[in-house]
Amino acid sequence: MAAHTSQSVAKAAGDESDVARGRSRRTDGPQRAANRGGLKRAFATHWYAWAMIAPVVLVLGIIIGWPLVRGVYLSLTDANERNVARTIGANHIEATYTFVGLDNYTAVLSDPVFWQRLVWTVVWTVACVTVTFALGLALANMLNRDFKGRAFYRMALILPWAVPGFVSVFAWRFLFNRDNGILNKLLDGGGIAAIPWLDDPTWAKLSVITVNVWLGIPFMMVALLGGLQSIPGELYEAAEMDGATTWQRFRHITLPGLRSVSMTVILLSTIWTFNMFPVIFLLTRGGPGDSTEILVTQAFREAFVSSPRDFAGSATWGVLILALLMIFALVYRRALRKQGEVW
């Protein structure tokens, strides 16, 4: 009797599962058809938007997608200036480089130079972003108040952003000149010995950080100023009436109100600083020695300075830089999600 009952239950369960599978098959087909119909309707309704973004997508695919794919491919070969395709006069020499797999990545990751460059790049990025954010936030708070000449100060503080980067770097290079620079002239007038701004490794590192901070403050200040102006003034008034101090208002109103803007500008500033080639190359060229070389300048050196020029090695450095930034962005995104931020 018990066996008969168990068989009946099993049969009933099987019948129910068959019915469920049949129902799933009947509903999956219409659902897929509905999705396809929805896509067709969306395309028919918004065809103008698709037409407008198509050229942008095409251009981005050409100027970003193709070089990226080509770079990844070269990083898996032994390409250099001696074995790539080239034309000398009327003669065309075919490429003879070969596929080597992950050998280049193994070589770079086992090279102490890579880790030295990575450590300094991380230190340089963290220092620049931290100081830039702190100063930008301080200036944004000051400019968010009503005072005489506020428009002039805003314009003056945004000016470094308007000047082309290479012009600013060359101006700073002149200021840092050991013999004729204005900074050392001022120090000499005060009886202080000249500082080897760009000739000593430690001073050179401080110099490049200073210049990059000076270039990055306007962007940080403008973004944070916009965030400050979006915080309702009633919150500050209510907190002040409740007896909150200036620090308490800043901590409990300003910082939470700027969280979304802060997360975005920190991410962008980190990516830009990590790849800030012009400041390092134009100010110190990675020197003195190789003390200020970062990952991106080392990739440039592999492709255009080393002999023979190592295109595969440079591509490998570039792919590793991209991978590091992608990992950082993913970790950063996960951290934002845990904090309840949407990104």
UniProtKB/TrEMBL annotation:
Segments of skewed composition (Basic and acidic residues): 18-29
SUPFAM superfamilies reported for this sequence: MetI-like (SSF161098)
Organism: Streptomyces globosus
Family that this chain belongs to: Belongs to the binding-protein-dependent transport system permease family.
Name assigned to this protein: Sugar ABC transporter permease
Alphabetized UniProt keyword annotations: Cell membrane, Membrane, Transmembrane, Transmembrane helix, Transport
Membrane topology, record value: Multi-pass membrane protein
Entry GO terms, CC: plasma membrane
Major localization listed first in the record, in broad terms: membrane
The keyword Hydrolase belongs to this UniProt entry's keyword annotation: no
